[in-house]
Structure formats: structure tokens, C-alpha cells
């Protein structure tokens, strides 16, 4: 007779602390096996030295070390998710399965399929809200429709947070004794089919956030928290972060609310993954010049702030938020290359790649998204450089040849601005005006 067990399925919540689904799983009357699945549907499209896979593996190793302190261990599987679950059903007498919700289209479809598989096995499948404070249907307009403008969404979000008296954190340490006693083999990165990357995710540092509102626009000041990859993969709790930000810095809190705004936009309007939120912009005639795109990718446009940002991204997997806006605006408006090209490149390179935020921010920069920058707003990279890196500290860090006769800009700003505005005007459907 197999022992009856509960499985907790880790996904975007790679921590034991303040993990809602795990909190509820551990209160099951069956011992809990924690499991993580390296999904071939995702891994097959990644390079073998993808730094994000290495970070996931490192995070799982930390979880496994914590579990071993409680006489348990993490069960790691690799393969097509559906096939893995069919195998797990044969391997264990599974009475319940718990996880935390994921709101991206692929994850929603995956979880529906797994739920059907488990239902056929008479196994209840419980999913919990964990990676957001308020999920897709909790912050709506009076008519129940989703917000598509950030500021009223933020105001409603803050109002509901206050009415709720904050947000509760979930401490499951007193139930750690309910982990299934085991010593599962911990798969190495090589066994998963990957190798170490020279690019690493940096530890997060909340101490730098106190003055976030004063320093956030200056890329030369190392004042960022480096939290974004940790939020993306759930190595930190959004509840702890929000409860901290409410006390410490309103501007930083607003950035966390932007994250949830874009997540509910993606959920309610899944077309934005590949299409303009504003369909009136579908008629824009982009140039989509591949040689120009390559110069943008390699950081050789002749505009120092653009080039420094792209080189930082290529070498580290990070890019400062102010620079991201300049870089994205340059691609879409100076070069007239569709936002989808830039979004795909960022998806490949960013350590903190988050589908909803990446799509949302790229459409914001292109002017085609909800609550986006107006089409006639074209960042001047030279003015941005003077305002936010006046001494050239950021530029010199990423462009060591800057003082040795740096190349001329690949396109004149004034010409590019006029061309962009004329192209947008000609392409935007009449009903936009």
C-alpha cells in the first residue's frame, strides 16, 4: 500500500516563507511532498546557459536545504508537464494537490489541463492567490469592468488595501513537521540539460529603497533594490514587500502597484501579448529594418544612453528603468521598429523578464498600449543623458571607448522625431481622434 500524500507544486513562488499555497497544503491531514517541474515546453526554447534557469536551480537548492533541516527534501522532475503529472499519479497515492495561481495565458491553459488530469484521478486541485495582493477581478470599476488607466486603478487599489487593514502574511513554520520524510535525489543543473552562466542574479537589498523617490532616475547611482528577478520567481513575498513599502516609500509602492496593473491587463486582454492594446494603431507602417535593429541590439547606435543601456543588458541581464524607457522609445520612434521586436529581445535577455510588465511597458513606450505615452512624445536621448547622467558616469562604465572618438548617431534626432510623428499620424485610424 502506498502512503497517502499531498503534493505542493512550486512554480513562481520559490520560497518556504509566507507562501500561501504551501501554508494551506501543510495543514492537510496527509504528509506534504514539495515538487518542482522543469517544463520542457519552456526550457526547449532557451539557451543552455540561460542565467534564469541557473537562478531557479540555485533557489531550489536553498529550499531543499531548508527542507532537509526538517527531514524532508524537494522532488524535482523534468519533462512535459502533463506527462510528469501522469507519472506522479502512478508513483504516489496523491490525495490532494496545492499550488499558487499563475495568471499568464500559458500557465492558465497548463493548469486547466492538469486540473482535468487530477479530476479524472479524483484528486482535488487547490490553487491560491500568492504573487499579487489583488488579482484580476478584485480591482474593477463600478460597472465591474477592468481598469485600463493606471491612476484610478492605483487609487482603488490603495483604498481596498486600507479597507482590508493591510495584508496578512502566512507563517507555516509550525507545520513544517508535516513535510513528507524523504531524501529525493536533487538533480544537478547538468542533469536538467543546462550549464552555469557567467551572468548572475544579484541579491536584493531593501536598504536602498528609503530614498527611491530621489534616486530612481539616475542610472549611475547604484540605488536599485535588485528585487525584480526575485519578485518574478517568487523568492520574496509580495505581501512582505508591500507591507514594508507602505511604511517606507510611496513611490516604490506605486511601482509594485504598476506590476499588478499590467498583470490584470494581460489577464483581461490577452491579445496584448502580441497585438496593440489600441487597435487604432494597427495601421502604422513600421520600417522594421533588420540592420538598424542589430545596431540597437548590440549598442552601436551612436547615442550613448541607448548604447550603454543595451550593453548593460547584454552583459548583465539588467537595465536601469529610466534607461529602459529611453531605449524602448528609441527603437519604436527613432527607428520605427515595432515594439514586438524589442519585447522579444528583452524577453531573451532580461533576468527579471515578466510577460505582463514587458508587454505593458513596451506598449507604453510605443504609444500603442493602455495609458501609454502619447505618440508624439519622443524621448531625446541626448537630453535624457544630460538630465540623468550629467557627469557621464553610467556612460563611461558601459562604453569604455567613449572618449576615443565615439561614433556619430545613426539617425538625426530632429528628423527621426518628425518622421515618427508623421508616420504615427498617417497610420492611426481616424476613430482615434
From TrEMBL:
GO biological process, one term: nucleobase-containing compound metabolic process
Gene3D superfamilies: 1.25.40.80, DNA Cyclobutane Dipyrimidine Photolyase, subunit A, domain 3, HUPs
Molecular function in Gene Ontology: deoxyribodipyrimidine photo-lyase activity; DNA binding; FAD binding
Photolyase/cryptochrome alpha/beta domain segment(s): 4-133
DNA repair found in the keyword field: no
Keywords: Chromophore, FAD, Flavoprotein, Lyase
Keyword Phosphoprotein: no
Site feature location: Electron transfer via tryptophanyl radical: 286, 339, 362
UniProt cofactor(s): (6R)-5,10-methylene-5,6,7,8-tetrahydrofolate; FAD
Cofactor note: Binds 1 FAD per subunit.
Residues engaged in binding FAD: 212, 224-228, 252, 255-262
InterPro entries named in the record: Crypto/Photolyase_FAD-like_sf, Crypto/Photolyase_N_sf, Cryptochr/Photolyase_FAD-bd, Cryptochrome/DNA_photolyase_1, DNA_photolyase_1_CS_C, DNA_photolyase_N, Rossmann-like_a/b/a_fold
UniProt family annotation: Belongs to the DNA photolyase family.
Entry protein name: Deoxyribodipyrimidine photo-lyase
Organism whose genome encodes this protein: Flavobacterium restrictum
